[in-house]
Amino acid sequence: MYKYMLKHKLLTVFNIAFTIIDSALNVALALVLKLLFEAGSSGSIIELRNAIVVFSLYIFVSSIVWMILKALRASLLRKCLTDLKNQIFTKIIYRSINVFNEENSAKSISLLTNDINILEQDYYTNLFELLTNLVGFIIATIALIRLNIYIALFIFILELIPLSMPVVFGKSLSKHKNKYSDSIGLFTVKIKDIFSGFEVVKGFNIEKRILKDYSISNGEAELARYRYNIFAGITDSLALAFGLIMFLGTIGLSRYFVINGKMTIGYMIAATQLMNNIVNPLVALSSRLNRLKSTKLIEDKINDILNKEDGSVEGISKNSFDDKICFNNVSFSYDGEKNVLKNVNFTIEKGRKYAIVGNSGGGKSTVLKLLLRYYDNFSGDILIDGIDNRNIKAEDLYKLVTIIHQNIYMFDSSIKDNITLFEGYDDTDVENAIKKAGLGALINKLDHGINSAVGENGCNLSGGEKQRIAIARAIIKNTPILVIDEATSSLDNETSYNIENSILNIPDLTCIVVTHKLNEDILKRYDEILVLKDGTLSEKGTFGELMGKKGFFYNLYNVA
Ligand SMILES: Nc1ncnc2c1ncn2[C@@H]1O[C@H](COP(=O)(O)OP(=O)(O)OP(=O)(O)O)[C@@H](O)[C@H]1O
């Protein structure tokens, strides 16, 4: 994690320099206090006045240094955390879809929020505090050796005990912190899951059941936090107890030297203050070292993300679709056991329109997912103009193919942003997409028109309106291949017919449409219908040919 500090070398150097100055000033307080006490007990007004001037100057300089130090730390912290979060996020956003889907996204959310907060406190802030403690400790120790070697020796021997604590407790503390971080991650997954299904929770009156689940998850997270806090508390208390023993010992020894005339009261005050500057940092040092060590497993988690293969391939550049897509003997299984596609063969020719129909669970959506390379562990080939789709640059593949999904995701922004996806399209392109997607009436009736907010995941819109926005989003992208997965299921028959019709009228567009709506008028407009039955391509042909066969499609059509 320190590499993020090294990126801002000058700021880090200034931070270190001011940390050293601040620590030195802390230790210097002992000498200033000695001066003040000696001047106070000497009876000389001039000495007292000089001591007060020195003390006031000390207060002034310390507060300025302290203020600068706080600003420098805040600035470095901001830069390091911004860089770290940006790097993690960039790594995640460039993952391929299948790699992204391997993990629950709430875990990544927890990493970017909870774990980063832990790092902020226990790594970065802690590291500089550690430096303050270390420098303060060294300077105070040197000063005390010069003041009284016996007191210094006494402290040296006792301080070995708190210093050994990170070695003894560090591993267990790290384990507890990681368990806490993991349980917070699982807790975030649970909350995200519950809030995403809020309407189901209400609609099925399962609040009590959900509350029970939530309480278990919350209890586990808090138990892990409690265990960590208890463990950290025990190590901190032990360090504090040793600190107090050292404090008492120093006072006893100083008193002995004062009684024997080997030390003045001023020196005794200075020795006690210096001892404070040794014991306090030492107590803090051991607990800070423990906390620093405890971030190791979080650092490992972050490194796992940063070093994980993102699933992207260098890939071949492909900027146009010229001829055809071929599925050659494609078989695929999600779980490595049951094949959901079995030796599927078909060809999609440029500019032609294809419908994919079949039984529920027959593998229609899976065909589209494989074409878009959501998964690449299938057998057989999917060739686009003769090039294996797994070898085409992902970025280029998505410039050739657009998909309209069954479940449409809406960003919490305006209708326009959800159509353009924040790209700067011409107004005429936007208007054209709105018209073709049948969105005109909706936009006219809204107060803010195209700039109206859609709400979180489109909660201000109906299912059909969301589908139309998704269709406009695909039309405006204007890719040569359009893939539609049940995108008109929430629309009434007339609207669905009109939209599908206008898409089918786009002359050069190659269309692959998964549909459940077996409407004769629309189906007749497709050049070919591919019929999937339990993962195999059972039939293909035009509507007329398939009806003539009186096979699986014929039955499907007559049941629908
Ligand atoms: N991510 C997944 N993990 C495991 N199995 C999956 C996954 N997605 C789909 N399946 C399974 O693969 C099979 C084919 O699913 P697919 O979604 O392709 O069918 P479909 O023909 O589009 O179905 P429907 O018409 O009901 O939408 C089904 O048995 C489904 O349960």
UniProtKB/TrEMBL annotation:
Localization (cell): Cell membrane
InterPro entries listed in its UniProt record: AAA+_ATPase, ABC1_TM_dom, ABC1_TM_sf, ABC_transporter-like_ATP-bd, ABC_transporter-like_CS, P-loop_NTPase, Type_1_exporter
Domain ABC transporter: 325-559
Superkingdom of origin organism: Bacteria
Domain ABC transmembrane type-1: 16-294
TM ranges: 12-36, 48-69, 127-145, 151-169, 237-259
GO MF annotation list: ABC-type oligopeptide transporter activity; ATP binding; ATP hydrolysis activity
GO cellular component, one term: plasma membrane
Topological relation to the membrane, as annotated: Multi-pass membrane protein
SUPFAM superfamilies in the cross-refs: ABC transporter transmembrane region (SSF90123), P-loop containing nucleoside triphosphate hydrolases (SSF52540)
Primary localisation category: membrane
Entry-linked Pfam families: ABC_membrane, ABC_tran
UniProt KW keywords: ATP-binding, Membrane, Nucleotide-binding, Transmembrane, Transmembrane helix, Transport
Name used for this protein in its record: ATP-binding cassette, subfamily C
Species: Lutispora thermophila DSM 19022
